[in-house]
Amino acid sequence: MGGVSTVPTLLRRQNMMNVPIPPPPDYEDLPECVPGYPVSWTYFNSVNEVLGGSGRDQLGTLNFLSPERLAEAAKSEIQLGKSITLDAPVDYLTKDISAFGGRSAPIHTIDIVAPNGREDSLTLNTQSSSQWDGLKHFGIAGANLFYNGYTPSDLETTDVLGTHVWCERGGISGRAVLVDFYSWALSRGEDIDVNSGRQITLEEVLAVLESQETSVRPGDVLVFRTGFMLWYEQCPPTKRHEQLCIKHAPGSHNFIGLKAERNFVAWLWNNQIAAVAGDQVAFESTPPPPPGGFGWLHEHLLAALGCPIGELWNLEELAEECKRLKRYSFFLTSMPLHVRGGVASPANALAIL
Length: 353
Prior knowledge:
This protein has 353 residues and is of the alpha/beta class. It is built from 12 helices and 15 strands. The N and C termini lie far apart (41 Å). The relative contact order is 0.20. The model is unreliable at 1-17 (pLDDT under 50).
């Protein structure tokens, strides 16, 4: 059960052998292994079988990042040779770290090993700054099932669904699109409060894309700018700490994010979106929906579809450059930490224009 799927290698081979890949079904036609949760597992497992692979898929929607799409993205998106980091420093949120799930702050130690030599060590929660949520991070509540039906016992006894699987496929690279909701909302006269629980709907996402004259393509990574990291940078530290750490206990905040609703998840799947990310705390708005409703986006994206989620990305320089160029697509490259069985990872992401 712990074996890594051979889908990544076979997908590369498929490019040379022209093996026909069955198209993904419509979201509404996906099976529900748990009531209310359409899952991609059967489809991606069937693709694995068509290509002669063995084992259960562990890549999820990253399978949409085919070699052909990667090559086309590099050809069309890299025009200026300008690279922009999308990571905040690993200790960027340290002064307010208790607000983010009660996580501990990173510890960086420099060791003097010789008069002319230094080494350093780093102890950190992999979700304490700009990050990827891996497929082990969140399962479907109640059913206790993670992506492709893996159970808590599987995760405890094997390294299945670890972020090392992403590394072994060559990281996460391809065409990405900045969905600059923050600039769009300001242009409409809205005063954005990132601590109000503001829910961004699919209709608004589509309106932003239309205003940017940006289309999405199969295999894209969508990166959402909500203004949270800009607020964090500009807010006076004392006021910021009071808002994040004094007024609210961990998990009780009202953060801006995407609205957890079926039509948004269906749109992502039907457009073959490979991954999503943003500058906000939880990607989706918080607090989460009440029990008995649609559920968390984390459940539907990570566990049901196998779609990686990036959070707390630093998008300000990218947003300025996209606005200047009037172009909101770019080449994204990201190499997570190569940790076997990893749950999450610093994003290590670059936008290349």
